[in-house]
Amino acid sequence: MSAYDERTALIVVDLQNDFADPAGNLPVTGGDEVVPIVNEETDRALAGGAFVAYTQDWHPPSTPHFAKDGGTWPVHCVAGTWGAELHPQLRVRGAVVTKGSGTEDGYSGFSVRDPATGEVRATRLASTLPIGIERLVVAGLATDYCVLETVLDARRLGYAVEVIGSGVRAVELKPGDGERAIQRMVQARATLR
Ligand code: VGL
Ligand code: ZN
How far apart are CA 101 and CA 94, in angstroms? Predict the structure, then answer.
C-alpha cells in the first residue's frame, strides 16, 4: 500500500443508497460492503494529510440517463431523495461534488456529456481538488461505470491513479463487466491495489 500525503486525494465515487443499499433502486451486489472499507481508508488518507472528496450521482426526475426517458437505467439518485443520499454509515469528511444534475449523460466524476450536442463539460471535481494534487486513490461504485469513467478521465487529466480493488463493486449488466473495467483502467496505467 502506498502512503497518503498532501499531494494525494482519495476520491469516493457514488457511495449512495440507491447503489449501496440492497433496497436501493439500482443496487450493486456487495455495495454496502464497501462502506466500512472506505471509512478506514478515509482515516488513513486524512492521517497522511491527503484530501478526500465524495462524488454524488444527482439526477433530475427525467433525464436521458433513465430508461423511461430513452436511456439505460432505472430511475435512481434523484436529487433530494433517500436514494441519492450518501450511505448513512459513510463517514463524510471531505468535499461532496454532485454530478448529472442537468439533462446530460455520463458517468465520470470529472465530466458530463450533453447527449444532444455531444458537448463535454467539467464538473466541479477538478476545481475542488486543492492545487498540487498529483495522485488520486479511487474507491466506490460502480466499478464498470462511474469508477471506470472517473479513473479514465483522471488519467487523461494527468493524475497518477490507484484503484482500491477491495473498495469497488460492479453493476455487471453483463457478467465480466467488472473484470473488463479493471483491465481497461490498468491499460490506462492506473494501478490496482
Ligand atoms: C452509475 C449507472 C448509472 C455509477 C451511475 O455510479 O456507476 N451507474 N448511474
Ligand atoms: Zn446515474
Answer: 20
**For 24-36, how does the pLDDT look when each residue is reduced to its tens digit (9 = 90+)?**
999 999 999 999 9
18 Cα to the center of ligand 2, angstroms:
10
Determine the Cα–Cα distance for residues 89 and 189; give it in Å rounded to an integer. Answer: 32
pLDDT for res 2: 64
Q: What's the grid cell of residue 37?
A: 472499507
Element (H, E) at 90: none
* 104 closest CA partner among 119, 82, 89, 90: 119
47 burial via Cβ count (<10 Å: 0-12, 13-18, 19+): exposed
Decide whether any atom of ligand 1 lies within 6 Å of the 9 Cβ. no
Active site annotation includes 77: no
> In sequence order, what are the beta bridge partners of 162?
137, 191
Distance 149 CA to ligand 1 centre (A): 10
